[in-house]
Please model this.
Amino acid sequence: MLSLAALPDLVLDPLAGKSDADWYRAPAGKWNSAQIVEHLSISLEGSGRAFDTHRDKPPMARRSKTRVEWVASFLILKVGWFPPGREAPQGSRPAEHVDRKYAEQHFREGIERFNRIAPELLTSRPHDLFVKHPRLGDLTLPEWLRFHLVHCRHHAKQIAARCAG
Model:
């Protein structure tokens, strides 16, 4: 079973014991680590909440993907590569100022939600329950889990770079 249990270590370990200044350091025009963690939290929370609310719906069929969604899905979900230079969808952008403790707690709660619902839904609804991703189209729970793993790995590199600099 895919699990998000390793994500706190991947994303938050570089920030462990760091000062507020480290959490809020960022290159000009880029998000700081608190904003990145909150961005990941928003994504986890939104998709997890959607699976919670859709779980009792009758079996669903995947809508056809556009060519762009197909290519993005292939690169992210199959290859595990997040194309650089893309802006985050509007609904997943963090506020200008994010409290670091709030972002960390929000991130952990998003992971906990997925790890609570995943065992049941991966057994009962792995192929007929979909939640729409704004750039990848309809995704199953296993696909969303893969997305979150790749997405967090992508942003963990940014966090590590900000902590090193």
